[in-house]
């Protein structure tokens, strides 16, 4: 007899994140120091941190809620352009960041509305179109975005004493953002919100029948997931120093999706690993960009065909007990 | 305990040119087990879909527990205490039974306590499967999980859409035992093709035929009704 112990005890992904989280935090904060001798490597690590944040946000939507939003990069772009625009007109970066992130979140809710009607692949297709329209928007409204030319020489945020946030300090901010992002995701997944989202992913009609407000929680998922996109986009712009519509196009969305799918959607650490493996790859292969595209294409196919559950998913599946054969008759069990 | 729990007035539903329900009136009292029978395509599942909010009726009103629930969402109806099962068993197959139950509890209006959950699980004899993925269980066990997930929400009315469909005859006997005890826990509305279930459980039977109510009354009377026999049961009483 296994009595249901505690309500908290009933959640699946609740346990066992303390140690990996501590390790991840140590590595994330140590990396900028360890790489401080080489600005290029430190920069690659910084960009990887942003991608960990993005992958975690994508994971909330794709991995836990079952929606594949290919306009994710577009949302990051909305935040990035908002922040760059606001800082150019005299705002402090630190004030512009939450505004930009909120702009991404609100856009995320609005652009996520088709998900209330469209399921699975059809929503993905729709989000692809939305992403294209957002990219065209970035090009079209050139008064705000400088069109295809992009905005360069984006000033660095300033620190307390008027000093620009540069080098190691900026790297540490990005590490903090990645760690906080992962912590927020863990908290959500452990909470009843996470349970509702997983229920919606598994069977949204059944979830509704059990009293879960599917519409409301999908929108909450979009709000939070887009917040991840927005914070990442806001931090990305001054770090790179240059943004253009190409910085936030569909390939970037696919890239972030690939990190989640490759690492293992619906697990906390899979997408983090996916981001750590794949984000630096584009720098390593920068000089062979044709090869890069082919490699990414092959990787997408490999993930879909060979390991639909990703690295972490494949690992988890091995641990799971195999299902009993189907033709075993159920032993008649009396109600008494 | 004889007040009206479910009051359906003139509910109609059309799918394109097909009238699935033609002005159905139905009253179910608290504690009264209502059985619904009828040939395939007569509108039974559509009727449950309309009541549970999955399908919007073209006309008519539904009130549940003294409140109008016409035009509200399934989750609001669920929170009002009306729950249902599906003709094809439906659980969160990838999640364990424990997680299925936990999911049922998160938005329950009146969630069962830990002890109550354990008590219901013991009664359904499903406790030993708690850490198995629900999708790996046998059909009978998945039906038990379905009942468990509903019961922890302490529903007022449970609508069962063919609860013994696909079960072996031994399992059907077991399930009838479970359902007759279930009557002590909540009011039951049951759709069935297996007359044994209807005969043993129902206090009142409604016969649907091509979207219309053909007959209504106590099971003994309905199952002997010549129109029902001619149009649905045939000579061999299933």
Tell me what the structure shows.
- The complex is a heterodimer of chains A (336) and B (238).
- In chain A, 68% of the residues lie in helices and 0% in strands.
- Chain A has 336 residues and is mainly alpha-helical.
- Chain A has a domain at 16-156 and 165-245.
- The two termini of chain A are 16 Å apart.
- The radius of gyration of chain A is 21 Å and the shape is globular.
- The model of chain B has no long low-confidence stretch (mean pLDDT 91).
- Chain B is an alpha/beta fold and 238 residues long.
- Chain B has a domain at 1-76 and 189-238: 3-Layer(aba) Sandwich (Rossmann fold).
- Chain B is globular, with a radius of gyration of 17 Å.
- Chain B has helices at 44-51, 74-79, 97-106, 114-123, 139-151, 169-182, 195-201, 219-223, 226-233; strands at residues 4-15, 18-29, 34-37, 59-64, 67-68, 82-84, 157-161, 187-191, 204-209, 212-217.
- Classes of the chains: A mainly alpha (336), B alpha/beta (238).
- At the A-B interface, helix 8 and helix 9 of A face helix 2, helix 3, helix 4, helix 5 and helix 6 of B.
Tell me the helix content of chain B.
25-40%
Helical residues, percent of chain A: 55-70%
| Shape label of chain B | globular
How far is it from the N-terminal to the C-terminal residue of chain A, by CA?
Answer: 16 Å
Strands of chain A, count: 0
Number of helices of chain B: 9
CATH class of the domain at 1-76 and 189-238 in chain B: Alpha Beta
**How confident overall, as mean pLDDT of chain A?**
87
Basic shape of chain A: globular
Structural class assignment of chain A: mainly alpha
Which oligomeric state applies? heterodimer
Element order of chain A: H for helix, E for strand: HHHHHHHHHHHHHHH
SS element count, helices of chain A: 15
Strand content of chain A: under 5%
Largest sheet of chain B: 6 strands, mixed
């Amino acid at each position: 007899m296994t009595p249901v112990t505690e309500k908290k005890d009933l959640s699946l992904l609740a346990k066992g994140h303390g140690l990996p989280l501590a390790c991840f935090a140590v590595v994330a904060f140590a990396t900028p120091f360890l790489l401080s001798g080489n600005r290029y490597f430190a920069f690659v690590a910084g960009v990887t941190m942003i991608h960990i944040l993005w992958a975690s946000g994508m994971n909330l939507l794709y991995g836990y809620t079952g929606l594949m939003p290919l306009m994710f990069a577009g949302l990051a772009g909305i935040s990035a352009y908002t922040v760059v625009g606001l800082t150019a007109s005299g705002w402090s970066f630190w004030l512009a960041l939450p505004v930009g992130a909120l702009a991404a979140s609100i856009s995320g809710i609005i652009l996520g509305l088709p998900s209330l009607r469209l399921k699975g692949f059809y929503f993905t297709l729709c989000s692809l179109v939305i992403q294209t329209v957002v990219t065209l928007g970035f090009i079209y409204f050139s008064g705000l975005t400088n069109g295809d030319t992009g905005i360069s020489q984006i000033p660095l945020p300033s620190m307390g004493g008027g000093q620009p946030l540069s080098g190691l300090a900026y790297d540490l901010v990005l590490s903090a953002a990645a760690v906080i992002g992962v912590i927020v995701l863990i908290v959500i997944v452990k909470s009843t919100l996470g349970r509702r989202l997983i229920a919606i992913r598994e069977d949204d009609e059944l979830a509704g029948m059990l009293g879960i407000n599917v519409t409301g929680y999908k929108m909450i998922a979009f709000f939070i997931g887009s917040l991840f996109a927005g914070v990442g986009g806001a931090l990305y712009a001054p770090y790179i120093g240059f943004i253009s519509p190409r910085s936030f196009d569909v390939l970037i969305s696919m890239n972030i999706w690939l990190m989640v799918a490759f690492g293992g959607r619906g697990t906390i650490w899979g997408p983090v690993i996916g981001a750590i493996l794949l984000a630096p790859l584009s720098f390593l292969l920068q000089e062979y960009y044709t090869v890069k595209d082919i490699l990414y294409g092959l990787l997408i196919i490999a993930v879909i065909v060979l390991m639909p559950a990703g690295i972490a998913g494949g690992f988890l599946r091995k641990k799971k007990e195999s299902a009993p054969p189907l033709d075993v008759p159920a032993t008649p069990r009396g109600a008494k | 305990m004889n007040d009206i729990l479910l009051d359906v007035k003139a509910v109609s539903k059309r799918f394109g040119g097909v009238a699935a329900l033609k002005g159905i009136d139905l009253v179910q009292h608290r504690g009264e087990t209502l059985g619904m029978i009828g040939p395939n395509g007569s509108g039974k599942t559509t009727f449950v879909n309309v009541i549970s909010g999955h399908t919007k009726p073209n006309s008519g009103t539904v009130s549940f527990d003294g409140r109008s629930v016409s035009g509200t969402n399934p989750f609001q109806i669920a929170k009002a205490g009306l729950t249902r099962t599906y003709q094809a068993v439906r659980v969160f197959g990838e999640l364990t039974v424990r997680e299925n139950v936990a999911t049922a509890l998160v938005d329950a209006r009146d969630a069962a306590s830990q002890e109550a959950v354990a008590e219901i699980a013991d009664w359904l004899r499903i406790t030993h499967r708690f850490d198995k993925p629900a999708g790996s269980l046998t059909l009978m066990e998945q039906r038990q999980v379905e009942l468990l997930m509903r019961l922890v929400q302490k529903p007022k009315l449970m609508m069962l859409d063919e609860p013994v469909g696909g079960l072996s005859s031994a399992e059907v006997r077991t399930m009838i035992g479970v359902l007759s005890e279930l009557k002590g826990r909540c009011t039951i509305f049951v759709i069935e093709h297996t007359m044994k279930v209807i005969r043993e459980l129902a206090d009142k039977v409604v016969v649907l035929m091509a979207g219309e109510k053909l007959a209504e009354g106590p099971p003994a009377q309905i199952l002997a009704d010549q129109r029902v026999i001619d149009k649905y049961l045939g000579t061999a009483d299933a």
